[in-house]
Amino acid sequence: MKKLMIAAMVILLGLSWWVTFSAVTEKPMEYRRHLAEAQKYEDKGIYYDAVLEYQKALEFNPDNANIYLKIAENYKSLQDETSFIQACNDAIEIGKDNEQAVLILVDYYLEKGERENAIALLKTQIEESSINGSLRAKLSSLAGGFRYLGEEYDSISNTCASCMMVQNGEEMGIIDEAGNPVIRTEYENIGLFGENGFAPVKKQGTWYYIDKNNYKRRQPDEAYEFLGTCSNGVIVAEKDGKWGYLSEDFKKMTEFEYDGATPFLNGIAGVKKGNKWALIHEDFHPFTDFGFDEIVCDEWGFCSRNEVVFVKIGEKYHLINKDGIQIGESYDSVMPFVSADPAAVMQAGKWGFVSSEGKRVLQGAFENAGSFSEIGYAPASSGGKWGFIKENGDFVIDPQFEGAKAFNQNGIAPVKENGKWRLIQLDIY
Fold first, then answer.
1. Residue partners of 68: CB distance under 8 A and separation at least 6
2. For residues 252 and 209, what is the distance between their CA atoms, to the nearest angstrom?
3. Helical (H) or strand (E) element with 276
4. Rounded-to-integer distance, Cα 170 and Cα 168, Å
5. What single-letter DSSP state applies at residue 162?
6. Beta-ladder partners of 140
7. Among 214, 338, 379, 384, which lies 20 to 30 A Cα-Cα from 274?
8. Mean pLDDT, the chain, as a whole number?
């Protein structure tokens, strides 16, 4: 009896192993059969049945991103956009580092003219994927696309401290770095919002200070011909044809003895006596002689971004550091720095670029140019039209505008068309 029980157990165990082995061997066979059937349907153009067979194959191998891509391919043939996109997203979700699935969906978006969706997908997957070289290359290949923003103006300045100065006719105002109106165009002159939160404006011949609500907030008791932005706790001002410096509560900090002056930036300003300029530190003491014929300022009046200043002596421009020492070469013309990136300089009729250390970073090759901004693009002209170049000198936006200025950190830049200035927004920056 005992021997019979043992024999029965052996038989049952053997049967169990046979069932298990049979299932293990049959599943791959069933899996391969569904894939083969799907391929047959594809070859005949019976795409929906191909999808059904691939879905059955997924029951045996649910983490196979390539099957989802085959399903997506068939849905695309069926012109079922929603199911195609879902299948691609399933493939992307399963294969986190599957660049192929991302690129297939990106190309589809581009074919449909949905450039913003393609760019958004690439940016998201680049952030989430550890293997993204092909995605980065694809994103780079799409650089240079842009759209127009906001209103037209007679002029728009480069961005400084998140603001752009705009002008229509004789009236000036301010927009923010995204192109939104901050101060409407109603002033005869306007300056940057300073560290005290107020901007100098001139209206009906009188200077005073406003806040970002366009409320009048400060006005000195005395009349001035010019009031500047408060920077380093100091205001540059002009009175009776002479220039000097005031505290932010309008107390005199220097004599009004200069024939010109700039606001402070990075603890440096320029002052003029007679026809010559010198540079001063924030203690108002000159650290150069009065030997410069010109101090190069940006559109807001600042001369010392990156703690360096372009000056003119005779017919040549030079770069001076915070110690008053010339660095780099001499130039025929220059544009002020707008960021920590290189500035545009001209030699022998061609424009190139130098760093704030005075090192040449791009040889002269352009008819005209502006300085590089923090996103690594600079305006440059060729054939009488303006576009934008990358740091290697290649155009990322082909020359097509009458004028162009620097991109800000939001990928927004002023361009001129048909005699008017407006903003463009980059798709990728």
1. 58, 87, 88, 90, 91, 94, 101
2. 17
3. strand 276-281
4. 6
5. T
6. none
7. 338
8. 92
How many helices and strands (H and E) does the chain possess?
7, 30
Q: Report the distance separating Cα 251 and Cα 241, nearest Å.
A: 18
8 A C-beta contact, residue 327 and residue 293: no
Beta strands in 127-193 (DSSP E): 146-153, 155-156, 163-168, 171-176, 181-187, 189-190
Q: How many CA atoms lie within 13 A of 6 on its CB side?
A: 3
H or E element that contains 127:
helix 115-128
Please report which confidence band the pLDDT of residue 26 belongs to, taking 50, 70 and 90 as the band edges: low
Cα 406 to Cα 389: distance, rounded to the nearest angstrom: 11
For residue range 134-173, what is the model confidence (pLDDT) as tens digits? 999 999 889 899 999 999 999 999 999 999 999 999 999 9
Match 């906001």 to its residue by tokens.
150
Beta bridge partners of 316: 313
State the virtual CA torsion across 349, 420, 159, 173 in degrees, nearest 10. Answer: 140
DSSP assignment, residue 300?
T
CA angle (407, 419, 164) in 5-degree steps: 35
- Tell me the pLDDT tens digit for each residue of 237-294: 999 999 999 999 999 999 999 999 999 999 999 999 999 999 999 999 999 999 999 9
Q: Please tell me the predicted confidence (pLDDT) of residue 60.
A: 93
Question: DSSP string of 32-94?
Answer: HHHHHHHHHHHHHT-HHHHHHHHHHHHHH-TT-HHHHHHHHHHHHHTT-HHHHHHHHHHHHHH
pTM, full prediction: 0.81
Contact 363, 352 (CB under 8 A): yes
DSSP 3-state of 21 = helix
Task: Provide the terminal-to-terminal Cα distance of the chain, rounded to the nearest Å.
Answer: 85
N residues, the chain: 429
| Sequence-ordered list of residues with C-beta below 8 angstroms from that of 376, at least 6 positions apart, any chain | 341, 390, 391
* pLDDT the model gives residue 97: 73
Cβ-based burial of 80 (10 A; exposed 0-12, middle 13-18, buried ≥19): middle
- Amino acid 425: pLDDT: 96
- In angstroms and rounded to an integer, the radius of gyration of the C-alpha atoms of the chain is 33
